[in-house]
Amino acid sequence: MRRLAIDVRPGEYAVARLDAGAAAPVGLFDRSGDALVSVTRTGGELSVICPAEAAPAGARVQDGWRLLTVRGPLAFTLTGVIAALSSELAAAGVALFTLSTFDTDHVLVRAADLDRAVAALEASGHDVFHA
């Protein structure tokens, strides 16, 4: 895998689950700043990734995540980014939650594991920056 530039984004994130038929939380996209917000619906759930303080009321919430973002845009022909990052973090015993967007890939790790995650990524040759 080529050397990646990865930004540790400020703040804590939450991963939340609502019932599949729930409406997308009102105001979630009205936030100022450049925080990541993702809403995904499947036949069985509505998942939300957002800053912890914006986690939707009534959702089952897992908070305490930190966001690492690969600097992009990444070409659609580029392969193995998530595979490499997940392997490197798995070898360090770091659990992760991934998300891809049109431009790039994002990895969430538990806040308690952030230092270990950064060390593992740097040891694998990536440049990690604290935003």
TrEMBL record:
Coiled-coil spans in chain: none
Lineage top rank: taxon: Bacteria
Residues of the A9CJY8-like N-terminal domain: 11-56
Positions of the CASTOR ACT domain: 61-122
Record's keyword terms, sorted: Membrane, Transmembrane, Transmembrane helix
Presence of the UniProt keyword Transmembrane in the record: yes
Protein name: Uncharacterized protein
